[in-house]
Amino acid sequence: MSAVKDIFQSVKDLWSLFVGLRVTGKYFMQPTLTVHYPRETVDEDVEQTYGGHVELVPKPKNPLKPKCIGCMMCVTNCPSGCLTVVKAKAPKPTPEEEQAMKEAEARGEKVKKPKAPKEPAKFMYDYSLCSLCGTCIENCPVGSLRYSNNIYFVGTSRKEFKLDLLQRLQRQAENTAKAAPEASEPEQAAETAKSEA
Questions:
Q1: What integer pLDDT is reported at residue 1 of this predicted model?
Q2: What's the rounded Cα separation, in Å, for the pair 166 and 119?
Q3: What's the domain range around 103?
Q4: 15/4: higher pLDDT
Q5: Which of 49, 121, 138, 171 has its CA at a distance of 20 to 30 angstroms from the CA of residue 28?
Q6: Tell me, what's the pLDDT at 57?
Q7: What does the pLDDT read at residue 187?
Q8: Distance in angstroms (rounded) separating the CA atoms of residues 87 and 121
Q9: What's the CATH number where 112 sits?
Q10: Is position 15 within any domain?
Q11: Is residue 88 part of a domain?
Q12: Domain count, the chain
């Protein structure tokens, strides 16, 4: 009886081997989906749809400032605890303004104290803790967070994955400003050529 059982077991093992080889053969004949970095790079189409680490979205009129209003919804809803936001404090009044406020209070007038700006003073992100769930992006009421398209983000220590997103936003704005004059130079050359003709 055990000999018959062993034969059936070996036939079952052979059958699973053939099934596995069929799947392997099917995908072996298809073109590869991966690239051999650094000899090859990813197409720009893939790079635009890639969802990397979280980054701040700049204001349309001022690319140096984030759209963030410091509401702390991203920090509250983050299950990984990878975001740290510090709200900006109200500016201290100058001695002249402080004196004017005291005089107005003495006269019984309502005094408006300076309000804190609606922007973060500090926005830290620990990519090593992030699970890329997108909860912070979904819960942001003003749409100030998004996934980056940075495919080639690497580091050799955990410290390199702790990002100051405000500094990153400023670097991106500076890089965009540097790239804009280079892009406009050929346009200016074409316009001067048209005017000369």
A1: 66
A2: 11
A3: 39-179
A4: 15
A5: 49
A6: 94
A7: 53
A8: 5
A9: 3.30.70.3270
A10: no
A11: yes
A12: 1
Q: Is residue 22 part of a domain?
A: no
3-class SS of residue 120: strand
pLDDT in tens, 152-189: 888 899 999 999 999 999 998 888 888 776 655 555 54
Cis ω for the linkage preceding 181 (within 30 of 0) = no
- Can you tell me the distance from the alpha carbon of 76 to that of 84, in angstroms, rounded to the nearest whole number? 10
pLDDT of residue 162: 94
121: amino acid identity, one letter: A
> How many Å separate Cα 89 from the centre of its chain?
25
| Neighbouring-strand partners of residue 180 | none
Structure tokens at 150: 């940075």
Phi, psi angles (nearest 5°) of residue 92: -75, 135
Q: Does pLDDT of 150 surpass 50? A: yes
Residue 23 within a domain: no
Q: Has this prediction a pTM greater than 0.70?
A: no
> How many residues can be counted in the chain?
197
Cβ–Cβ under 8 Å, residues 110 and 101:
no
Q: Mean pLDDT for the chain?
A: 83
Tokens 């509401």 belong to residue: 71
What are the structure tokens assigned to 74, written together? 């991203």
- List 169's β-bridge partners, or say none: none
Q: What percent of the chain has pLDDT over 90?
A: 38
pLDDT(5) > 50: yes
Q: How far apart are CA 46 and CA 37, in angstroms?
A: 15
